[in-house]
Structure formats: structure tokens, C-alpha cells
Amino acid sequence: MLNLPRMPLRLNRTEMSLREKLLQLNWSLIALLAAIACIGFATLYSAAGGSLEPWALKQIVRFVVGLSIMIAVAMVDLRFWVRNAYIFYVVAAVLLLLVEIKGTVGMGAQRWIDLGFIQLQPSEIMKITLILALARYFHGATLQEIGRPLFLIPPLIMVLLPAAMVMKQPDLGTAMMLVMSAGAVFFMAGVRMWKFALVAISGLSAIPLAWEFLREYQKKRVLIFLNPEDDPLGAGYHITQSKIALGSGGLFGKGYMGGTQSRLNFLPEKQTDFIFTMFAEEWGMMGGLVLLALYVMLVAFGYAIALRCRSQFGRLMALGITTTFFLYFFINIAMVMGLVPVVGVPLPLISYGGTAMLSLLFGWGLVMSAYIHRDMPISRRGMHDD
Amino acid sequence: MYHDNDRAKLFSRRAMMLAGGKATLVVGLAARMYYLQVMEADKYAMQAEDNRITTRLLAPPRGLILDRNGVAMAINQQNYRVMVVAEQTPSLDYTLDALAKIIPIGESERARIHKEARRRRRFVPVSVRENLTWEEVARVEVNAPDLPGIIIDVGQSRYYPMESLGAHILGYVAAVSENDLTDDPLEELPGFRIGKGGVEKVYDMALRGRAGTSSLEVNSVGRIHRELERKEGEPGIDLNLTLDIRLQQYAAQRLGDESAAVVVMDILTGDVIVMASTPSFDPNSFNRGLSNDEWKDLTTNPRSPLTNKVIAGQFAPGSTFKLLTALAALESRDITPDMRVLCTGHMQLGSIKFHCWKKEGHGSQDLISGLKNSCDVYFYEVARRVGFEKIAEMARRFGLGTQTGIDLPSERPGLIPDRAWKRKALKQPWHPGETLINAIGQGYVTATPIQLAVMTARIANGGYAVVPHVARDQIIEKSVHPRPQPEWPSLEVSRQSLALVRKGMFAVSNEPGGTAYKARITQEGMWLSGKTGSAQVRRITMRERESGVKKNEQLPWKERDHALFVAYAPEENPRYSIAVVVEHGGGGSAVAAPIARDIMLEVQKRDLARVSTEANGTPEPPPDFRRF
């Protein structure tokens, strides 16, 4: 676009009115999000044995709140995020550190921070602020700069610092997601392939070392993942029962509210991490594929938006957040089907839980902001191009 | 402005690569879904059903046990028990406190309930007390609103209304132990009882019946959601015995406090009509649970109440064995009935003196008088001529030395010795004197009362190998078949020999001077013929013989003779045989014979055969083996 003359298009303006932004909202994206969330409500309704209490109703309220936040975020000028990306990152990192020092112990791991009105999971916030910060870092970088190894040191530290802290909580799943979504941003920014290969090889060789750092229960989870039938009534119980539920659902499922495994409580955590199992038990493979298709469509939207963005920041951020979202559902579904170890990643927009819902919708708000401001050129420091 | 174009191009290229990677992963997910939900669906569907459905067994009611006239001897009683469901109580102690005001609960009971409640899930009922009386049940029901979590449950427990009467034949039921396990699923039911003795044990499988099943939908912690299917079981079959409970009662009373055994059987069919062993025990006590003291009493009592002496008591048959010695001698033609032996009170064999029970001797004796007087010297001489091998062979033919095969557990074989046995068991040769001693039923020879009754029956029925039984019908597996007309094999003993022996038995009971003349039956048509026996259980030393053999009354109980008597009746048309053994009772003629007389009289008065024939309306078959 460099060679093109400045076009007098309305969308190319550096300033847009709120009205204009609202008109730009991507309604298909919102509809898609709502469709997935509705599947979640219905599944939670069934998980409670045909009742809005205790899950479905709260989840609906959260979704509505989340949707408002998403639209609000979408309205915010993209340059605001560029300018403040590092600040948000530092705040999130401090919060992470706070949990480390004085976090409430919940679910056997230090993950929560109680602000009185909401229990915050700083790791969830970090998933978004890390992508913002990385997008900001690479936004102003030329390909030549990216080619220099020294240039990659600061962003690497930006990734590894929170990943290490999250790992220490310990929350293996989130740490892996941080590293992988950051990797996607690095990749999209143009970091050379061989550097990834180098990191991958050194990472693999570090596995024995990392093994030593894992907590006992994490080791157990990995071992059980490798052979769940070893201990079907003990630690392998979750995954074995999950596979039974899924498999017994068959092609068309046992019917809505007819899942015996979940209704009779053989399925653990059916409203949170294992909700996909319950859904697939009741709706069968067909239901599972439909849900998977909806997720894929959402990811495709994310890609389309990223590719359509004029600014590198918008592209990187949209793709980073889309990738995070992809990792959510991929890891969760692979986990309940016994393809990866049980790591405690919820099914996005469907699993019962507030923080994940809010942070995911916040993320989609950013993506939508990138869509609304798709034609806005952004300078290196977040000012509009001049 | 910087070169954004290159970066945008790179971005697009790499976005495609990343998208391609993600697409691969999604395809992987879909493939896994296909694998789990289509390829492996059947396996997992089955596992899900296994998870969901629990099958519970429904215990069928145990078959009743009835006497030959249909009088119940073993029944099932409703057992009311009070249970507590921890989940439905404000606290377990609160409810137990409230319950304790109505029915007493001891401290140890309370501790047990707490322990069981902790071990089980909170919705599983825990038994507080069993066997509540009707009044207690009513009191609990009336106060139900104040007893949260208390439920009344009805189970079934075995009850023997006759208590100790016939206990040895019935046996008892008790909890299943490791050793009893078969593949019957019923055995896994908590509180299931199996037959542990008597017919309860022998016909246990038939009495048990078949288990019903109830398919229940349960959740992951085992709470029942609903019943999906119910298949009722088959109750156990009712077992009719050949016993006559009234005669049994009479016999038990007649034996009184003696440690004794009596058995009466039908010599044609093998029906056991009376089988009493005293002292007895109350089989209900096993089901109730015995205290340590009670158990000790039962097991250490020298009169062994738990043993069925009729089939498991092995006694020296004493002079009743002379019937077989006589038969063996007659059959081998080593003597003639007219052969006479002079009894001087003893017989000299080599350097050893063998005494007759009558010190002054019987004078000249032939077969009939030898039996009538039970002259030892006469039978010493007979045995000397015949040899013990032939006597042993005859004894075995008449059912001694092996189990009779009655349908009761723990039958003992007794012992008929011979040279081979002695060589093997004692590593000694057979002494000629042992022939004499064993021929009069002393020495090594032992027999059970049922064997003696069978022996007498076979003598009385014309030499047919009747086998006794206590179940009226034939039970094959779990079904009942009427017993076929008996066709006992012949023992190949001549009618003449049997007639002579019976003539001797007639003399014993019905000729003045016979050893059981005082215990004869005088009612017309009911006369009995028998043989007395007094089995010595101690050795009489030379010195004692010189100073005069002590009378039984002078001896401690354990050293007194066993009193025996075998008989058949009625004399003209024999139908019943009897064997009476009174342990350490003294003399056969003084103690055992009167008991036998009284019981046989009672048996004939009830004349079961006639009663049952009239009831059936079919004439009694005239089997050719009844008379010769």
C-alpha cells in the first residue's frame, strides 16, 4: 500500500465516530459466538438434569456481560492497545507474581486472586496481554531486525517469564498455551523456520530435565495419559469414563438429556473440563462434528480478519488470539478423547466458568477491534501514520 | 513509512501454513471421534451399560422340610429388623438416641453401627437389630415421625419349630464359609445361609431354589435410581421326609436323658421312620448365633449332642452280632442247627480261657437256644469251626463295615476286621482267640445303629439289600421324583438259614427264659423278635473275675457296658426293624429291649404303611420278597 496514494475512504480515516464503529460490528462473528455459547447453555442445562440451576443461568448472565465487554473492547481504538500493550503486560505479570506470593489456593493450585467482587485468574489475563505485548513488539520491526537473533531475546523473555510463573503454580496447560500461542506470533512475525526447529530440538532434549520439575500429580497425569487402562478406578478413572461416555454415544448420541454416563455421575467434571464428553455422549459424533465445525468457522473468521488487517499489530494480535482460541478447544477436545494428557483446559464458551468466558470474549473484542480498524495504518509507536 | 508489503506477504504465506497445521489437527480430532464413536462404539456402549446397570439377586425362599405326614419341621420365618440410613438422619447418634428409648441398644451395638455406617456409603441401610418382636416393630412404627432415617425391613430366617426334635436329621443352616463356595451366585448375598448338616446339607441345592434378579440403574457411587427389570426366582423345593414326627417325639422322650440312639426303618422300602440321637441340640441356636459358652458346652459334652449317633456312633455290636455269626455258619454248612455245644461257663482255647457272660454256664445248647440265651460259649465254638473270614464276609453282606448309603452326611463305616485289615492296620497276625471275641461282637468289630437296623431289616425281609433313606422322594438336582418301587438286590442267603435265625430271635423275645422275654410285646399281631447285646467297653481282669465281676451299677458311667437291642416286627408279617443303642446303659435286655419294645409298639399302633396305603387308595403291592 506504500505506493498507493492516500485514499479518501471513510474507513481509512484516523478517527472514526462511535456510530461508524457500531455499524462496522461483525454480526456474523457475534452470531457464531452466540451459537456456540447456546450449545453451552443447553449442555449445562442437561448436565444439571434439566435445570437452569446451578449452571446454565449463571453462564447466560456471564455470556451477556462478556458480550457487552466484547463490544466495548471492539469500540476502543486499536492504537490504544498498541500504546498500552506493555503496561497491560506488566500489570498482568505483577498480578501473576501476586498469586505466587499471596494467592488463594483453589483446585490444588495457586491460580486465583480474590479482588472481592471477582476472583481473578491472572494467567487468563496473561494469555491476552502477552499476545498484545508481542504484537506490539513485532509491529514496529522490519524483517531485517527480526532476522537478528539478539532482537528476539526481549520477546523470548516476555514469553518465558510468565510461562515459568504459570508453570510454577502449577498449571501446565496454561503454560503450554502461552508458549504455543506466543510461538504462533513469532512465526507470523517472520522468525526463521530453522530457529523454530532449533527451539523444538532443544525443547525436546530438555524434557528429562523438565520432568524433574513437574509436580507429582502432573507426572501421574502424563503417565496415566500414556496408559489410562492401568488404573481404571484410580487416577485413570476420568479419562476411561470419558472415553466410555464418548464411545457409547455412537454416531447419533443417546439423545438430549439421555446421557447415562453423565447423568449417573460416572463422568467427572461434566460441567467444566469434560463438558465436550457429555455433549458428544448425548449428540453423538454428529453433534461433535457440528460443534467442531462451528469452532473452525470461528477460527476462519479470525484468520480472515487478520489477513484483512492493514496494520501488522492488528494482524499479529488477531491471529495470536485466534490461535489461543484454537488451542483452547483443540487441547480440551483432544484431552477428553485421550489424545493428550489431562491438563485442565476448559472448552471455550461452553465449559462452566467465569474467567475463561470473560477473557475469551475480551479477546474476541480485540479481534473485532482489529476488524473495525482494519484499514487504519498505525505508526511504530501506535500513532496513526502521518 | 517502512516496507510493509514484504511483511504482509510473509504474513499471508505463513498464515496459510499455520492454518494448514491447524486443519491437520482438527482432522485428527475428527478421526479420533470417528474411532471412538463409530469403530469402538459397541465396546464403549457395553461398558457404559455395565457402569449403569447393577444386577441384584433376589433370594428365593428356602424349601420347607416336612415330616411324612406334612408336619413342618423347618420353615422360614419373617425376620423383622430395624435399619438406619445415615444419610436421612440429622446425625446418627441423634436417631440412635431416639431409638434407644424404644428398643434397647447396647454400647457395643452402637459402636458396631457407627463402624458399619462409616464403612458404607451414607445411603446404605445399616442393620441396628434383627429378630424384632411384633410388639417392638409396632412401637418403632408408631414413633416413626421421631425416628428420622429408621426403616423396618423384613427378611427371612430359618426356623425349626420342633427345636431339638429331629435336629440331627434336619441339620442346620449357617453363613457361607470359604470352603462352601460353589458357583451359585446366591452365596454372595449378604446374610445368605446354607445347609450345614443333615438333610439341610444333603439337599441344600434343591432347598435353595433359584435366585431371581433385579436389574437396577445405579449412579457412580452406587445409589439406585430405578428398577429396570425384575425376574422372580424359584423358591426351593419342599422336602418331605420319611420320619414320623409323633413317633420321633415318642422315641426321644422314651430315651430321656440317656446318651442313646434309636432308629426304626421300613424293611421293605428303606424309609427311616424314627431316627433319634440323644442328647440333641436346638438347630435354631446356630442361626441365632451361639455364645462361646454354649458352643463349648456343645462340643465338650461327653454325650456329644452334636453327633448323630445313629449314623456316626460306632459301637461294638456285642451279642447282636451273633445273628451274623449264626448265618455265616449255617450258610457255610459248618454247623447244623441241631449241633449241640456244652457251655460250662467258659471255653479253653490254647492257654487262654474264654468266658461266657453266665459264669455258671448254660449247659447243652443248640442254635436256637444259643441265640435265645445269647450263650457266648456256643458261639465261640461255632466261630472256631467257621473261622472269622466267612463271618466277616456275611457281616459285610448285611451292611456292616461300610456306609449304608443313607442320604445324610457324616455317616461312619464302622469296622468289620479280617486278617488283611489287621496286618495292614496293626501290623500283627490274626490270633485264633480274636475269631472268638469278634464273633460275639466284641474286639475290633464296630457298627453304627443304622447298620444294625439295616442288618435286622435284611434278615427280616428275606435277604434283600434294602438301603435306608430319610427323604420321601428322589431328589435329582433340583427336581422331585417319586421313589420307584424298590427292587433291592438279593443277598443270596438261603431262606432256611434266615428262618432259623429268625426263629432264634423269636425265642429271644417270646419264649420264657429268652434274654428279652421280659420286654416282649403281648398285643396280638404286633409281636416282635429281637436280639439283645451288651458290649463291654472295659477289660475284665483275672483278679476281678475271681473276686466277682462288678455289676454295671457299681461302675462309673464311662465304664458301663453299651446296651443294644435289634428287633423286627410284627412277627408274622415283618415291616419294621429297630436298633437301639444306649451308651454305657448297662445290659441290653434290661435297658435297650424295653425301649425298643415301647417304640415298636407305638410304631405298629400308628402302622404307617397301612395308613399311607389307605390314604393313597391303592392296595399295598405284594412284593415277593416280603415272605419266603
Automatic annotation (TrEMBL), chain A:
UniProt GO MF annotations: lipid-linked peptidoglycan transporter activity; peptidoglycan glycosyltransferase activity
Uppermost EC category: transferase
Gene Ontology cellular-component terms listed: cell division site; plasma membrane
Cell division as UniProt keyword: yes
Compartmental location: Cell inner membrane; Membrane
Pfam families registered for this protein in UniProt: FTSW_RODA_SPOVE (PF01098)
Pathway(s) annotated for this protein in UniProt: Cell wall biogenesis; peptidoglycan biosynthesis
InterPro entries: Cell_cycle_FtsW-rel_CS, FtsW/RodA, RodA/MrdB
Enzyme Commission (EC) number: 2.4.99.28
Keywords carried by this UniProt record: Cell cycle, Cell division, Cell inner membrane, Cell membrane, Cell shape, Cell wall biogenesis/degradation, Glycosyltransferase, Membrane, Peptidoglycan synthesis, Transferase, Transmembrane, Transmembrane helix
Residue intervals passing through the bilayer: 25-48, 60-78, 85-105, 117-138, 150-166, 172-189, 196-214, 283-306, 318-343, 349-372
Membrane topology according to the record: Multi-pass membrane protein
Source domain of life: Bacteria
GO biological process: cell division; cell wall organization; peptidoglycan biosynthetic process; regulation of cell shape
Catalytic activity annotation: [GlcNAc-(1->4)-Mur2Ac(oyl-L-Ala-gamma-D-Glu-L-Lys-D-Ala-D-Ala)](n)-di-trans,octa-cis-undecaprenyl diphosphate + beta-D-GlcNAc-(1->4)-Mur2Ac(oyl-L-Ala-gamma-D-Glu-L-Lys-D-Ala-D-Ala)-di-trans,octa-cis-undecaprenyl diphosphate = [GlcNAc-(1->4)-Mur2Ac(oyl-L-Ala-gamma-D-Glu-L-Lys-D-Ala-D-Ala)](n+1)-di-trans,octa-cis-undecaprenyl diphosphate + di-trans,octa-cis-undecaprenyl diphosphate + H(+)
Keyword Transferase: yes
Chief localisation class: membrane
Similarity comment: family membership: Belongs to the SEDS family. MrdB/RodA subfamily.
PANTHER family: CELL CYCLE PROTEIN, PEPTIDOGLYCAN GLYCOSYLTRANSFERASE MRDB
Function as written in the Swiss-Prot or TrEMBL entry: Peptidoglycan polymerase that is essential for cell wall elongation.
Name used for this protein in its record: Peptidoglycan glycosyltransferase MrdB
Automatic annotation (TrEMBL), chain B:
Chief localisation class: membrane
Modified residues (N6-carboxylysine): K322
Endpoints of the signal sequence: none
Boundaries of every Penicillin-binding protein dimerisation domain copy: 59-228
Gene3D superfamilies: DD-peptidase/beta-lactamase superfamily, Penicillin-binding protein 2a (Domain 2), Penicillin-binding protein 2a, domain 3
Active site: S319
Record membrane topology: Single-pass membrane protein
UniProt keyword annotation of Cell inner membrane present: yes
EC number, as in UniProt: 3.5.2.6
Keywords, sorted A to Z: Antibiotic resistance, Carboxypeptidase, Cell inner membrane, Cell membrane, Cell shape, Cell wall biogenesis/degradation, Hydrolase, Membrane, Peptidoglycan synthesis, Protease, Signal, Transferase, Transmembrane, Transmembrane helix
SUPFAM superfamilies referenced in this protein's UniProt entry, alphabetically: beta-lactamase/transpeptidase-like, Penicillin binding protein dimerisation domain
Catalysed reaction, written as an equation: a beta-lactam + H2O = a substituted beta-amino acid
Residues covered by the Penicillin-binding protein transpeptidase domain: 261-600
Family annotation (InterPro entries): Beta-lactam/transpept, Beta-lactam/transpept-like, Beta-lactam_class-D_AS, PBP_dimer, PBP_dimer_sf, PCN-bd_Tpept, Penicillin-binding_protein_2
GO terms (BP aspect): antibiotic catabolic process; cell wall organization; peptidoglycan biosynthetic process; proteolysis; regulation of cell shape; response to antibiotic
Transmembrane intervals: none
Record-level GO cellular component terms: plasma membrane
MF-aspect GO terms: beta-lactamase activity; penicillin binding; peptidoglycan L,D-transpeptidase activity; serine-type D-Ala-D-Ala carboxypeptidase activity; transferase activity
Subcellular location: Cell membrane; Membrane
Keyword tRNA processing: no
Family: Belongs to the class-D beta-lactamase family.
Protein name in UniProt: Beta-lactamase
